[in-house]
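Work Package 4 report. The design task specified in the project plan requires that, given a folded chain encoded as structure tokens, an amino acid be chosen for each position. We show below one input record used in the internal validation round.
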């Protein structure tokens, strides 16, 4: 990937903690809304991790009401509001973040201005509470940590929802600086390694010229150190942040093609959050990327069945269906691949995925020597978006049937 495309991706991941990471706060002092010692917060976080956003928001708002002066409680609510919106607009797709395609991705739904207003209000409220504590004690590690979380979440919304990359980058860098300061004051504050670890990895992944330019501004990176930080948080951080670290770690391990460890990490998340279909789909994606085709097919089938049976809190069946098509195609199971692509195309709210799935279904029907069915799919691809690269390929296959390599 040319450096001009890699740069926005790397900048974006500075604040994207994926489907990626809610950045829920936890500290080593007696904060009343910690996961460990507040039942309402814990219940809300568990709902959040399983993508039950409405239930999560109800619990977390109750915790905020009980602790109105606690910026951690405000951050919990802000995180839930942001990720509920990211899911609604179609911004939480792990396949997109395995490549650079999310940088210019058009979302399924326009942003809700009321959500934007609420994110701004929660951001300002949290920052005011944090600043009040820092005015009393500039070395208050909990306040510094909370401010870093607020800044990171604001950056996540700016980047992933609004595509305001430069503003988001500034917030991501400020969040890193806050958490680096926390680690200077208290090296045992493991949770603070989360944001720093992500940023270290991302900057370490930049092309050399961009990395040099970043270093001039004082921003340094180290991929190995970043991964080690995330491993440390995933093992020794507080319960909620451990899961967040695993999400980020798995994403980066996938990009590094370190599949065995990534599969292990996501497998742990799948056991922890059984109602999260995106974790289950990511596990299948990893199996397929690692070359375990038949295992991936089985995993995708399970996710599709779970979507149909109501196993998950929310589900977009097109995501595992398209993955099933890809895995079955790789194993030369063309009939199942065609059926899976058809399911993805018929159920997807995403026009880009719909078009890709329809084209792939046409290719499979050509391989199965069902030319009439293939031509029908190619015509549907062109009708979806006649100016796309997929449409250009469809026109080619209408003249000359697709053949496997």
């Amino acid at each position: 990937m040319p450096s001009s495309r890699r740069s926005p991706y790397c900048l974006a991941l500075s604040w994207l903690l994926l489907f990626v990471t809610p950045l829920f706060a936890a500290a080593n002092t007696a904060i009343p809304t910690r996961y460990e010692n507040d039942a309402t917060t814990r219940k809300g976080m568990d709902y959040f991790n399983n993508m039950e956003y409405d239930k999560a928001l109800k619990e977390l708002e109750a915790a905020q009401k009980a602790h109105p002066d606690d910026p951690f409680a405000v951050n919990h609510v802000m995180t839930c509001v942001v990720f509920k919106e990211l899911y609604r607009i179609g911004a939480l797709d792990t396949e997109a973040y395995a490549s650079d395609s999310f940088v210019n991705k058009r979302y399924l739904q326009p942003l809700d201005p009321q959500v934007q207003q609420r994110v701004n209000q929660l951001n300002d409220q949290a920052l005011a509470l944090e600043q009040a504590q820092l005015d009393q004690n500039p070395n208050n590690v909990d306040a510094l940590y909370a401010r870093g979380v607020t800044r990171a979440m604001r950056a996540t919304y700016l980047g992933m929802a609004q595509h305001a990359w430069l503003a988001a980058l500034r917030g991501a860098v400020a969040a890193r600086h806050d958490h680096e300061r926390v680690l200077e004051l208290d090296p045992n504050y493991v949770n603070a390694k989360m944001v720093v670890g992500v940023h270290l990895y991302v900057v370490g992944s930049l092309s050399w010229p961009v990395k040099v330019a970043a270093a001039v501004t004082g921003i340094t990176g180290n991929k190995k150190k970043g991964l080690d930080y995330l491993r440390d948080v995933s093992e020794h951080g507080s319960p909620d942040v451990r899961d967040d670290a695993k999400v980020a770690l798995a994403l980066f391990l996938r990009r590094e093609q370190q599949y065995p460890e990534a599969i292990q990490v996501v497998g742990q998340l799948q056991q922890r959050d059984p109602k999260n279909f995106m974790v289950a789909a990511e596990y299948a994606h990893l199996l397929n990327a690692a070359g375990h085709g038949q295992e991936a097919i089985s995993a995708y089938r399970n996710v599709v069945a779970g979507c149909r049976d109501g196993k998950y809190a929310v589900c977009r069946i097109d995501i595992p269906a398209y993955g099933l098509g890809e895995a079955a195609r790789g194993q030369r199971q063309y009939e199942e691949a065609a059926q899976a692509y058809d399911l993805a195309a018929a159920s997807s709210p995403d026009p880009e995925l719909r078009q890709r799935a329809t084209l792939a279904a046409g290719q499979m029907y050509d391989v199965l020597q069902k030319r009439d069915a293939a031509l029908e799919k190619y015509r549907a691809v062109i009708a979806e978006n006649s100016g796309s690269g997929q449409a250009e390929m469809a026109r080619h296959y209408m003249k000359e049937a697709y053949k496997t390599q």
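The domain at 273-405 is CATH 1.25.40.10 (Serine Threonine Protein Phosphatase 5, Tetratricopeptide repeat). Validation will be extended to a larger panel in the next phase.
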